[in-house]
Amino acid sequence: MPPAAAPNDLPLGIDVAGVNVTYANGHLALRDATFALAGGTICALVGVNGSGKSTLFKAIMGIVVPAAGRVRIAGLPVAQALKRNLVAYVPQSEEVDWSFPVSVWDVVLMGRYGHMGFLRIPRAEDRRIAEESLARVGMLEFRERQIGELSGGQRKRVFLARALAQRARVILLDEPFTGVDVNTELAIIALLRELRAEGHIMLVSTHNLGSVPEFCDQVVLINRTVLACGPTAEVFTEENLLRAFGGVLRHFRFDESTVQNHDGRAVTLLTDDERPLVFGKGGHVEYRERAGREDVVKKRAEGEGDV
Amino acid sequence: MNRLLEPFQFPFMTDAMIVGAAVGAVCAVLSCYLVLKGWSLMGDAISHAVLPGIVVAYAIGLPLAVGAFASGLLCAVLTGFIKANSRVKEDTVMGVVFTGLFAFGLVLFTKVRSDLHLDHILFGNILGLEPGDLRNTVVVAGAVLAVVLALRRDLLLFCFDPTHARTVGLKNGILYYLLLTLLAVTIVVSLKAVGIILVIAMLVTPGCIGYLLSDRFSVMLAIAVASAVGSSLGGVYVSFFLNASTGACIVLLQAGVFLAALIGAPKHGLLAARRRTSGPRSETAPATTEV
Q: What CATH class has A7-86+168-304?
């Protein structure tokens, strides 16, 4: 591969093979992690807290160096891929200092740094791309705002715009839907779908299990290692999720609950960290365990004429 | 009127003003990064940790600045090493390391026979500059300023979002040690003016003033430099009449400006915050405190 080749010339892919990551305190964060993604995908990265999701991101960004195994992006080692601005990261809201004295425009221009010269003085081209990226996420009119003066959804969109301005082909998103209103969530998903159609790879770390089948075509399940990876329909199964989450996952099995008139086939509700609040047909709260609440079931059955 | 112009007749006063302004400017620029990066304690640590280096350099005949620089850096590196290899948190480690080095310096000082004055090292001696001090200070301060201003965007991104800095190909490791080195060099050139104990004020206060008064980094930088240079000139001038420690006068003036900004800053000041919350909230506030 000649060094002058533009990033777009390379067939895009992420190839993580046998990666072990150990931290200086001896903690083994990832063991033998292996998966591969080809261009044009939105892939969910799902696992409990401490399962190694952020370590995996760090390995893809070269922030931690694997003790064993290798990461390749578009066939290149990480350092070279970063030089070509192939990888962008959209941080979790908690990681950002929102009182930092930078404007929306400053942040989006930071996406262009890798394309600028030593003094990072933006050229007309950089300005044009930054403007275009802000317009694409609908934030152009906010360009002079200090970043702390934005709503949760707007903040997310600014950092997405930065990734767009970077012209990265691999975009890592860390919990993109936390603190975001429903409309922004839909707008972000629509944007990710556009990017997928353009051949990008989006790797989305998320706790929001319910949203995964809605917009991710592939899933990587991890718990200190890659447990499963592949198309959502094949990987995102109850069995696999139980394996990935162990006892951490909360269940709400309709057939065991106070919900009545289900047809006997088990419907299970899974959620990661929070217990779901379920309202039944009559608008009343449903409890997880039918056992011990026979009186409630009976009363409701009488009240609604359900038997 | 003549009485007010009197300080300008003495070369030692005008030299002190030039050195004070140069030191103020370079400290102010760095302070903006320290405040944003949360490195105030790092500045304090390095400034104290230079003491043993100064004493050792004196004993073996090296330039004092070289020793100061080496032991300041040793403090930062030692802190990083202990933090990475133990369960103790960084600020705690730093507290132990820099006070340890400072105490070591004090003990060394009494054991090494010298014509150094401990109080000049601790509190500065800007009115007693030696020949060449003026030129050296201005040259070094100018060099540090040039490096910081050339790399200001990289350093800002390094403070704001090191992960993104990494993905666009910045070398965070180099920027980290560069910022440390600039800090150590700045502390060394500032010792003459304000000394080990007070230099941390020069390295934090101007940045805080700028941070309170602006939401734009370039404006914050300008405000910090202006307030620091103004305080240095004013401090040297005032100390002539008060016959007080010059370093202390400079730092006191900065603290005064900070206080004014803290109270009166148009957007982030205490009065502005009170104006914003007064009205609907002032009525509900007592109710919640009663509960």
A: alpha beta
